[in-house]
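User: Predict the complex with flavin mononucleotide.
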Amino acid sequence: MELPPETPATAPFIIHTKLNTRHYRLISNMSMKKSPIFTALMATMIITMISCKSTSTADPATTDSSAGNAALENIMTRTSVRQYAPGKTIPKDTVELLLRAAMSAPTAVNRQPWQFIVIDNRESLDSLSEVLPYAKMLEHASIAIVPCGDLSKAFEDEPSYWIQDLSAATENLLLAAHSLGLGAVWTGVYPTKERVAAVSQQLGLPANVIPLAVVPIGYPLGDHKPKDKWNPEAVHFNHWSQS
Ligand SMILES: Cc1cc2nc3c(=O)[nH]c(=O)nc-3n(C[C@H](O)[C@H](O)[C@H](O)COP(=O)(O)O)c2cc1C
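Assistant: Here is the predicted structure with flavin mononucleotide placed in the model:
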């Protein structure tokens, strides 16, 4: 039996349903017999198509729901996690995935002025927690990643862009951890002088390498609800005086 011709663009429900040859034959047979099953099937497909279309064309900027969009859901459900299951090891390829995500961040003039120190031994994690008063969760973390700016690779016209470059990388790291079922928190180092000095000394960093943050990572313990930060008053269209 001949197959139906290419589906016209005006029938999106057929485009979206990815029918195979067998399904085409079945539908054509049913169509020829004008079966009630065919009518019911077509009605169901049309209803499904209409409901799919109405959600897929929704403007993400005008909806408060990220349902069905995995990337948006991951962004909107991320939260700082400071309690971790003790004694758990994060596999090496998972650590590499986290680093790959961090290095996917945008950077000024694509300089990628970064170095990442992975701390995966208990003693070093504990020593770091001793010098960082707001990073005590390091004592229970499986690893920590320290995103650092490498001034020797920074954009020479405006070296301070390294801070934004490394901030983008750090957020990518947090999002990747969350998407992999890990918990993480950004603990601030730069620009607090004493913290930069303590971390640099502990990790033996050369003078051109500045630690931006310490990110403890582990398998989350307990429930961690994301905060709702949506604030329409912080949004301005075209001019400060417009809302
Ligand atoms: C630059 C920066 C520094 C931070 N420093 C610390 C810190 O030293 N210790 C800590 O527990 N959390 C720290 N945080 C995490 C914030 O407390 C957290 O992001 C904020 O409360 C919002 O919560 P959320 O991450 O769950 O959305 C820091 C976050 C940023 C961006």
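Helices lie at 12-17, 21-33, 36-56, 70-77, 92-102, 122-131, 161-179, 193-203.
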